[in-house]
Amino acid sequence: MSDDSAQSGKGVSRRDFVTGLGAAGIGGLVVGGVAGYFVAPDDGTSSSSGGASGDDLKIGSVSPVTGPYSGDGEEMVRGQEIAVSEINDNGGVGGRKLVLVTADVSDLAPENYVQAAQRLVNQEKVAAVFSGYVSNNSTEFSVYADAGVPTFHLNTLQANVDFATDNGMDNIYQGCPSEIWYGKGFVPLMEEWIGSGAWTPSAKTVAVVTSNDPYSISIAKAFQSEVEGIGWNVPIYEEITAPNADWGPILSKIRANPPGLIYVTDYIPGDLASFAKQFANSPTPSLLYQQYGPSIPEYLELAGDAGYGVIWSTTIGTLPDKVGEDFLAMYQQAYNSQAGLSQAGGQYDMVRLWAQTAAMAGDPYDFTQVNKLLKSVIFRGVSGTVRWISDTELAAAPFPDLVNDPSLAMPHLTYQIQQGKQVPISPDPYTQGSFELPPWM
Asked: Do 113 and 194 sit in the same domain of this protein?
């Protein structure tokens, strides 16, 4: 049977199927309990307000491609680019090729986010927006909400989710669990290591070090509450302004009163690598946890041997399974460099999730229908399963912190850097190693 011959009484050819499929790569979509991909009408017509069938279809990327967060911004754009390339190679969305329009938010100032949103929505007329970070006060959300444009971000901030929920903004999706799960997920691991004898803390104390932004502070406070709940004390709590290079004053306090655990919630890889190197000059008998930043490739380059033994976690990460490994191989082939373990895969997933849903809707600019379909999505991507907590709380549910089923939630991954390698040590079934005492201990 040829590619152009009919596959059913409706005359849907294999070529039509691929055109409607759009992103037939790694992972898949389940909507309303029906698995698979979805075809666009095969008559060549479109009611799209964004242009006729066959015209390029613009989608927006809001990413910090310059400035102190550009390492992560590069990961975001590259993940989006791989998805766009894959979708276009399979015929696009409803026969339309995707074009990625990037808006740089540089230093993450709120006004940059507003300007990016206005440009993408009002001037570029994009069919969807994908962002790694968003403003902490959600100031740009009203631009997206007024237009109804499906907007996806991985900012990992419960305040963003609450803002969208409280204001009925049902087109803004956080494609990962929120930061409140970091503390809730790490304390049980601590107790597990202690209970098994793998770690005997030198003291039941923690030095909490955070940057002074709402995201980092939220993680720090949530963790402090959780760890104090099991009888530990937090005698050292320090806030810094990121980016920060001189950790001397804080490390002096730590060395004067060595804690059992150092918990750092600054997320800039350069800051965290600098902390690890300065700590390594005269380490204390403390576990060192650094939140998220070590997932970015430049961290290992900057920290070197000082990163060995560091523990870190992310509520969105490329899984150490066949699905994740295939994506990492694609990234390596495309850019001749190693992918980070968070934003690249997450953005790749979000673009494909939207593309498959938009293809099912038939018209990517029918935002009402696209958003309706998105509410019932269960999507298995390279970062695990995206399934919203509820129809109104549009954030991915975490496994095992909230949902004890990896087929219905996204894993909260914890890694330890062992001999220069990122080794996932929690949760099962994604582990590839176990916790080890750091070399300085």
From this structure: no
In this structure, are residues 353 and 316 in contact, taking their beta carbons and an 8 Å threshold?
no
The answer to whether 117 and 144 are in contact (CB under 8 A) is yes
DSSP 8-state symbol, 241: P
CB count within 10 Å of CB 356 equals 27
What's the number of domains the chain is made of?
Answer: 2
The answer as to whether 27 is a domain residue is yes
Task: Judge whether 2 lies within some domain.
Answer: no
Residues 308 and 334 grouped into a single domain: no
Say if CB 309 and CB 418 are below 8 A apart: yes
- What confidence score (pLDDT) does residue 214 get? 86
User: What are the residue ranges of helices labelled H in 61-104?
Assistant: 70-89
Give me the domain span that covers residue 330: 14-178+321-396
Whether 169 contacts 141, CB under 8 Å = yes
Helices (H) and strands (E) in the chain, counts: 13, 18
CB 146 within 8 A of CB 169: no
53-109 pLDDT per residue, tens: 568 999 999 999 999 889 899 999 999 999 999 999 999 999 999 999 999 999 899
- At 320 the pLDDT is 87
Domain CATH number, residue 185? 3.40.50.2300
How does pLDDT run across 245-265, given as a tens digit for each residue? 899 999 999 999 999 999 999
CA distances from 132 to 69, 151, 361, 434 (A): 11, 11, 25, 30
Q: Tell me which amino acid residue 342 is.
A: S
239 is written with which tokens? 């806030």
Could you tell me which of 131, 142, 194 has the C-alpha nearest to residue 168? 142
Mean pLDDT of the 342-371 span:
97
Q: Do 50 and 317 form a contact (C-beta atoms < 8 A)?
A: no
Sign of CA dihedral 290, 295, 299, 305: positive
The reply to whether 119 and 216 lie within a common domain is no
Distances (CA, A) of 323 to 12, 197, 425: 29, 34, 18
The answer to whether residue 2 scores a pLDDT higher than 50 is no
How far apart (Å, rounded) are the C-alpha atoms in residues 94 and 45? 10
The confidence band for 153, taking pLDDT boundaries of 50, 70 and 90, is very high
